[in-house]
Write a structure and sequence with these properties.
The chain is of the alpha/beta class. It folds into 2 domains: 205 residues, FAD/NAD(P)-binding domain, CATH 3.50.50.60; 141 residues, 2-Layer Sandwich (D-Amino Acid Oxidase, Chain A, domain 2), CATH 3.30.9. It has 12 helices and 18 strands. Strands 1, 2, 8, 9, 10, 11, 17 and 18 form an 8-stranded mixed beta sheet that branches. α2 crosses α11.
């Protein structure tokens, strides 16, 4: 792998950028691996990188049914924060947040992490109480969290209208370390780094079923043949439930939409979230305003969300929309992920993230790699095991997800 540097960039600029090698190898599947990761999104690629770098495995494959990073990694709206409610969630997401600033150096690839601050506004007395509760819980857990008055919120986010609209701002929570990153760059960075360590990244290789023998996973059936493995991890978002049908996973799949505006000059230098309105907004490095919407399909959802956005940010009323898309999110009853080993020996899970997966990427990779390599849950992942549903040890994050639907 050619490392990026001022010298290498200057050299390639002088010769028209014709000398760059492929960023990751085009691998063909082998008959057998030590470990297989099903799902070539950011989580699966991060886990593969950690398996080799941290646990010493030398024969790892990532199987992706389409193109690398083309699933939920490509469709999310890239918010990064750790201000959840439950102590277990705070520990997991804050581990990720502490890793984000160093990710560019660790992977030798610019992931464009921008810690611009996440501002969560409260527009009703009930929401004030709920958001303040989260602020206090974060402070008790040692996580940065501030409660701002309406005037302080507007000072931090000048575009924000705090009065005179249908949804007056009564206060806001601020996490200054939060922000956004470039989703494609994150997937490419992990793929490049993993490939350089010998991981086989195999695209256009759908997995049709797990191969089981006596309560143990022995490999996978794919469109390109049988591939055997000592351990298998499912990191395939909404596709996980079908592949692990024998586990009867408590997962639901929902459509979630987003849209972006035409690019304009920088105007919004924070992430704005509004739980009662089920929306969040940020501005990308290209100048596009990125809008996250509530669960549901159709233009009616877009129209309702746009009305809420314009109530808080009326200066955006003349922006033209550039494109719209949707993805499928997998959610659990308590809106927290399922992580770690399963009753099937050698099989690990990474699913049920809803729309919280991207922000957790650096920590999710660590946690999944630990489960695959050791067969035991990572300390941060242990509370999120599949067994919590039978035990009644739920980690309820419906309110702290900051949208009424409870999955943002």
């Amino acid at each position: 792998m050619v490392r990026f540097s001022l010298v290498s960039l200057a050299r390639e600029a002088l010769r028209g950028h014709t000398g760059w090698p492929r960023q990751w190898r085009r691998a063909e599947p082998k008959r057998r691996y030590q470990a297989i990761i099903v799902g070539g999104g950011a989580h699966g690629l991060a886990a593969a990188w950690h398996l080799v770098r941290d646990h010493g495995l030398r024969d790892v494959a990532v199987l992706e049914k389409g193109w690398l990073g083309g699933g939920n990694t490509a469709r999310n709206t890239t918010i990064i924060r750790s201000n959840y409610l439950a102590a277990e969630s705070v520990a997991l997401y804050d581990r990720a947040l502490t890793l984000w600033p160093g990710l560019t150096q660790a992977l030798d690839y610019n992931v464009m992490f921008s810690p611009r601050g996440v501002l969560t506004v409260a527009t009703s007395p009930d929401e004030v109480r709920e958001v303040q509760r989260r602020v206090y819980a974060n402070r008790l857990a040692g996580i940065d969290a501030e409660w701002l008055s309406p005037a302080e919120a507007q000072a931090f986010c000048p575009l924000l209208r705090i009065e005179g609209g249908r949804w007056p701002v009564l206060g806001a929570a601020l996490q200054r370390r939060g922000g956004i990153a470039r989703h494609d760059a994150v997937a490419w960075a992990y793929a490049r780094a993993a490939s350089a360590l010998g991981v086989d990244i195999i695209e256009q290789c759908p997995v049709n079923a797990l191969r089981l023998d006596g309560g143990r996973v022995t490999g996978v059936d794919t469109a390109r043949g049988v591939i055997e493995a000592d351990a298998v991890a499912l990191s395939a978002a909404a596709g996980t439930a079908g592949l692990a049908a024998e586990l009867d996973l408590p997962l639901e799949s929902h459509v979630l939409q987003a849209f972006v505006s035409e690019p304009v000059k920088p105007a919004l230098d924070c992430v704005l979230m509004a739980g009662n309105l089920d929306v969040h907004v940020s501005q990308s490095a290209k100048g596009e305003f990125v809008f996250g919407l509530p669960i549901g399909a159709g233009f009616g959802v877009i129209e309702t969300a746009a009305a809420g956005i314009l109530d808080l940010l009326p200066t955006l009323s003349r922006l033209r929309l550039l494109r719209q898309w949707h993805g499928t999110v997998d959610v659990t009853p308590d809106r927290s992920p399922i992580l770690g080993p399963t009753p099937v020996d050698g099989l690990s899970l990474n699913c049920g993230w809803g729309t919280g997966g991207f922000k957790a990427t650096p920590a999710a990779g660590e946690i999944l790699a630990h489960a695959v390599a050791t067969g035991r849950p990572h300390p941060l992942g242990a509370p999120f095991g599949l067994g919590r549903f039978a035990a009644g040890a739920l980690i309820d994050e419906r309110a702290a997800s900051a949208v009424a639907g409870g999955v943002r």
